[in-house]
Specification:
By secondary structure, the chain is mainly alpha-helical. Helix 12 packs across helix 24. The C terminus is likely disordered.
C-alpha cells in the first residue's frame, strides 16, 4: 500500500516512537496555546513543566530533545518567554555547557586508564556490599573536588567498558574483534540470563555512584554549579563553605553509606544483584589478556593518563580555570600523548555529550519560562513569611520540592538571589542569611535525587548511551532512588532543625568561621 503525503509526514514525525506517544505530543502542542491565551499563563507554565517532565520520563521511547524542543519552540512563539531570555539563561550557564562539551570528551580519552583501574577494583573486591560502598564513597570524594557531571561521565565510561567487554564475548567474539554491543541478536541462552543479571548488577552500581555524586557534590563549592553561585553571594572560600555545610552534609554522607549497605544486604528496591560468575571470569580473562598484551607504548599511555588525571583533580580542586576549560586542556594533553590526532578520531569523543548539551539548552529555555511566568514566586514569598528554625526548615523543603520538578541549579540560584535581596533590604540579619544559604544549598542538592530532572548528573545518566543498554528508565531511576530520597531528605531535615543553629554557634566559638560585618548578629540573637 502506497503512503499518502500526510501519512508519510506522520510516519516520519518522531521516527520510531510509538503512535500513542506521537499523539500525546500533538495533544500537548494543541492545548498549550489554548491554556495560555484563554485560561491562565501561570497555569500554562506549570502544564509546560509537567509536559517536559513527561518527555524526560519517556526518554527510552524517544530522546527528549525532539519532543521537548517542539514544546519549547511553541512556547517561544506564543510568548511564554523570549529567545533573548533563553539565550541569557544559556550564557549564564555557559560554564555548564562548556563542561559538557569538553570535560565529557576529555574523559573519553582517559577511558583506558579508568577501565584499567575499575576492572582491578571489580575483580579484587568480591563482596557486593563492599564494592557498592567503594563506588558510592569514591563518587562522593571525587564529586567534592571535581563536579558531579564529570564524575558521572567517568562512571558511565567505566560501566560502558564493562558491558561491552562481556557483551562481545557473550556474542561469540574475542576481545580484539569489532562489535555492536547495542544488539542482542547473537547472545543466546544461557548467556542471555547472565547478561540480564549483569545489567541488574551494573544498574545497582550506576545508581549508587549517582547518589554518591550528590553526597559529595553538596559538600564543597565546586561540587555543583549552584554551590559556586551561593559561595560567591555569601563571600565564602572553599574551606568556609565546607565547614558551614558540614553540620548537615557529614551526617547525611554516613546515612547515605548506611542506606547503601542496608539496600544491598536485604536486596530492597532492586538492589542486591550479584555479578554472575561467568561475567567475573570473562572480566578476569580480559584483565589478564590486557596485561599480557600491554606494550611499552600502552604503559606509557596509562602513565600519561594518570598524570593528566592528577592535573585534572588539582586544576578543579584549586579552581585554576572554568571546568570546561580544564576539560579542554585534558583533551589536548590526552590526545597529544596518545597519538590521536586525526579529526575523525577526535569526533567520536563528542558523540556522547553533544545531544545532552542540546537538551540542556532546551531545559534553559524551560527555565526562562519559569522565570517569565513567575511560577516559583508564590512559594518563595510564602517561605519568607516564616521565622527562625521553621524558616530554615521551610527553605530546605521548598528548595527540595522545587528541585525535584525543576533543576537544582536554577532553584538554588533563584533562592539565593532572593535571600541576598532580603539581606540588602535589612529584612534578615547576616547570621540568618548564612544559615539560609546552608539550607538552600542542602535543600537543592539532597531531596533532588528523587528524580532525574532534579540533578544534571542524573539526567545525563538517564539520557546517556548506557541507560537503554542497562534498561535504566526514568521510572526505574525514581524507584531505585526512592529509599535514598527518603533517608537523605529526613536526615538533612533533622540536622537543619536540631543541629544547624547549635553547630553554627560552636563554629563561631571555635573561630572556625567568622561573623561578617554587614548586618551581622551575635550568636545569642538566635
Amino acid at each position: 500500500m502506497q503512503l499518502t503525503m500526510p501519512m508519510a509526514i506522520y510516519k516520519n514525525f518522531l521516527g520510531h516512537a510509538p503512535d500513542w506517544y506521537k499523539q500525546v505530543i500533538v495533544g500537548f502542542l494543541i492545548i498549550n496555546p489554548i491554556i495560555f491565551h484563554f485560561v491562565s499563563p501561570y497555569l500554562a507554565g506549570w502544564v509546560l513543566i509537567l509536559e517536559f517532565i513527561f518527555t524526560l520520563a519517556m526518554a527510552l521511547k524517544c530522546y527528549p530533545l525532539q519532543p521537548g524542543g517542539l514544546l519549547l519552540i511553541e512556547a517561544l512563539f506564543i510568548g511564554m518567554t523570549s529567545p533573548e531570555h533563553m539565550y541569557h539563561e544559556i550564557k549564564t550557564n555557559l560554564s555548564v555547557v562548556l563542561l559538557l562539551v569538553f570535560m565529557v570528551a576529555g574523559i573519553y580519552f582517559m577511558k583506558e586508564l579508568l577501565l584499567y583501574l575499575f576492572t582491578k577494583l571489580l575483580i579484587n573486591v568480591r563482596n557486593k556490599r563492599a564494592l557498592s560502598l567503594a563506588f558510592i564513597a569514591a563518587s562522593a570524594f571525587l564529586s567534592a573536588f571535581l563536579d558531579a557531571l564529570t564524575v558521572i561521565a567517568v562512571i558511565i565510561a567505566v560501566g560502558m567498558g564493562f558491558y561491552s567487554i562481556y557483551h562481545k564475548v557473550a556474542s561469540g567474539k574475542d576481545f580484539s574483534h569489532d562489535h555492536d554491543h547495542t544488539a542482542d541478536d547473537d547472545v543466546g541462552q544461557p548467556s542471555r540470563n547472565d547478561l540480564d543479571n549483569f545489567r541488574a548488577f551494573l544498574r545497582n552500581l550506576m545508581m549508587h555512584a549517582a547518589v554518591g555524586t550528590a553526597l559529595g557534590g553538596v559538600m564543597t563549592m565546586v561540587g555543583e554549579p549552584q554551590n559556586l553561585i551561593i559561595a560567591e553571594k555569601a563571600s565564602w572560600d572553599f574551606a568556609e563553605f565546607f565547614i558551614r555545610m558540614s553540620p548537615i552534609t557529614i551526617p547525611v554522607f554516613f546515612a547515605g553509606l548506611l542506606t547503601a549497605y542496608v539496600l544491598e544486604r536485604f536486596s530492597w528496591f532492586s538492589y542486591g544483584a550479584q555479578l554472575p560468575p561467568v561475567v567475573r571470569e570473562i572480566l578476569t580473562d580480559y584483565d589478564t589478556h590486557m596485561d599480557e598484551e600491554r606494550t611499552k607504548r600502552d604503559s606509557a599511555r596509562l602513565l600519561m593518563q594518570a598524570l593528566i588525571g592528577v592535573w585534572l583533580i588539582v586544576g578543579l580542586a584549586l579552581h585554576l580555570g572554568e571546568v570546561g576549560l580544564i576539560g579542554l586542556s585534558v583533551i589536548v594533553l590526552a590526545t597529544t600523548m596518545s597519538g590521536v590526532i586525526e579529526e575523525h578520531s577526535l569526533g567520536k569523543a563528542f558523540e556522547e555529550a553533544l545531544p545532552f548539551t542540546a537538551l540542556l539548552c532546551i531545559f534553559f529555555g524551560i527555565v526562562a519560562v519559569i522565570i517569565d511566568q513567575g511560577l516559583f514566586k508564590p512559594v518563595i514569598d510564602w517561605v519568607l513569611t516564616f521565622e527562625g528554625k521553621t524558616q530554615l526548615v521551610m527553605f530546605y523543603l521548598a528548595n527540595g520540592v522545587l528541585s525535584m520538578v525543576s533543576d537544582n541549579v536554577f532553584v538554588g540560584s533563584v533562592y539565593i538571589t532572593e535571600v541576598t535581596a532580603a539581606l540588602e533590604a535589612g529584612t534578615i540579619t547576616r547570621d540568618q542569611f548564612d544559615m539560609l544559604a546552608v539550607a538552600i544549598n542542602t535543600g537543592t542538592n539532597l531531596p533532588s535525587v528523587a528524580t532525574p530532572n532534579g540533578q544534571a548528573a542524573f539526567l545525563f545518566l538517564l539520557t546517556s548511551a548506557i541507560a537503554p543498554l542497562l534498561r535504566l528508565s526514568y521510572g526505574t531511576m525514581v524507584y531505585m532512588a526512592f529509599p535514598y530520597t527518603i533517608v537523605l531528605t529526613l536526615v538533612g531535615l533533622a540536622a537543619t532543625y536540631f543541629g544547624l543553629y547549635e553547630a553554627t554557634d560552636f563554629l563561631y566559638e571555635m573561630h572556625w568561621i567568622e561573623h561578617h560585618s554587614v548586618g551581622a548578629a551575635t550568636p545569642e540573637s538566635h
